[in-house]
Fold:
Amino acid sequence: MKTRLFLLFAAAMIVMAMSVVNENKPNPKEILKKTEEQSQGKSSKGKMTIETIRPKWSTSMTLTSWSLGTEYALTIINEPAKNKGIGTLKRDKEVWMWYPKIESLTKLPPSMMSQSWMGTDFSNDDLINQSSLIDDYSHEMGKDSTIEKRTCWKITLTPKEDSDVIWGKIEMWIDQKDYLQLLTKFYDEDDVLVSKMEGSNIKEMGGRTMATKLVMTPIEKEGHKTIMTYNELEFDIDIEENFFTPQQLKRIRP
Structure:
């Protein structure tokens, strides 16, 4: 009888201990959600510079972007003059490109999400986040690491069977203090590393702690990289869904 009671007590203690562990275990979806909220807020407006570097040349452009949640985004190129006014619009799963010099408004098919955005090392999907890191992928926590002297969670994302995404796997390292995306690795469907994105130059911008420099590096292209630097950021601005329309994309001026 005593043995049976002891076994029941031991089993109860194990269940209680497991419950405590599960309660303390990081939830990857919650981490990703807080990371998105940290970098975008409910809404945002930003000005940035994108520098594309190649072995024998480099070029840069400046942009202004607006966002509302994760469903709406609009980006307009300010400079150089030859690309001035070219815009990209995201409305939920729809993506549009506007080319003012030829007055062409084009809706991009899903097959173009993996293609380069304006000759940079960022894909269309990287820039506008058409696929959802939360909804389109399954998540697994990995071993913590230190990046930029900050302790980071590692999250591995694998596509769900019914998801239409461009990556076969994504690995992300997210700062445990400020939810900064400090390192992201992108793999193809054969589990081959294609590119990596590194966040740095951490400072306060728009009242938030941000990694204001993002470097995208393709693995198999020596001397190739693209640097995105945030120059200004405002969060929780007054903006509505009706700002993010193809008509607005054509009207807005850089």
